[in-house]
Amino acid sequence: MVEVDHIDSSSPSLVNHDDSKSPGYHFISNFQSMHDLIEKLILLKYDKEFCPVYKCQPLHRYYFTIQTNPGEQFYVFSCLSVWLIKEKCQLKMTSELNPQDYEDPNVTIHGILDAVRLIVDKVSIAPNKIKQGYGSEVIWILNTLTDDALSKNQFARSPIVVKVLTSDKDYELDNIEEDKIIEDEDDIEINFNDQFTLLDDEYGDFDNEMVTDKLYTQSLVNRPQAILASNVDSAEWKIEVERVLPQLKVILRSSDHKADWRAHIEEMYRHRNEVEKHFETTSNSLKKLSDEINKEMAQIGAREKYLQLQLETLTSEYNSLEAHLKQATESYKMVSGGVTEKSRKLASISEELDSVKEEMEKRGTAMTDGTPLISIRKALTTIKQEIVSLDIRIGVAMHTLLRIKVADSTKDALEKQQPFKNNRMDELIF
Hints:
mainly alpha, 4 domains, two-stranded antiparallel sheet, 15 helices, 1% strand, disordered N terminus, cilium, cell projection
């Protein structure tokens, strides 16, 4: 039986601070800081209070350490910072913080930095570093806000105290059943690993505590609610067992045994001792190799200085020529720009000249062309012919009128002479 008084929120450190001069210290420290940040957020119940409100999934333990999606990471960082400032830290801000997709990120960043300055006096962080959405600066700001939130919510860290309560009877019983437990351990571990693998595929982005909660929930669901009574015939049951018995054999592969480090702890110690023993023999050769490398590096440095002295004049000449080339390039660009403008003007003038030439050619052909004169002559000829025909018609008409007048005058004269002749005849008769 194990009794736990209280649990520490901090986890074992992944970083040895004595190795601060190591090249990978700053890289690993980001992972440790992010790991601590997730633990603090879990204490603040962000999965119940923050995730449902902002519709975000629970964060991965190393979410802000490596770049994945800068836009999404910056949005999550902004929402998480605003939630900590308003809900947990309860800081009084002069400007309203409400991160949105369409909002200017610089406004949000300055608001968050103003809130952090209320907690820490001096904050020298470039806004561009925060705008990336990941990195040590983002993790530091969130750690500062979570520390202030934990202090205001009266969260106190304390070490783990575990009391193991056992009796002599239980100890003897454990020793008696130890061999049986060891025999069944592999089968139980295989079944558990299978279940854990399925859950890990389904909930790959979540933490191990969530997977454990899922297993516990499934066990509660699958627990029978009442005593079950079997109505299966024993003979049929034995036949079915004999049929499927060959398929129930479990074959343990070597990879399955190597998955448990506890089964190979002695081998790990042996390998460590071998490494230490071989290191003693190779340390001298490594030191000699290091001394030789240092000597070669010193020689290379001296040779480099000698070459720099020898080539100093050529280097200065090269620099002057390079500067002259830059000036020539700039002047060429300026001249080429003027040539381009003049070429454009020349093209436009050439187009206007072509249009003028076309108009002149049209007018010249119109002036030298004799077709209008021929058409005029033909028209005059036709007019003259029509005039002659009209003259003939006029003469015929005048002749006809003349005949009619002559006829009329002759008729009048005859009519005047007729009575005189009649009287003369009467006189002759009488």
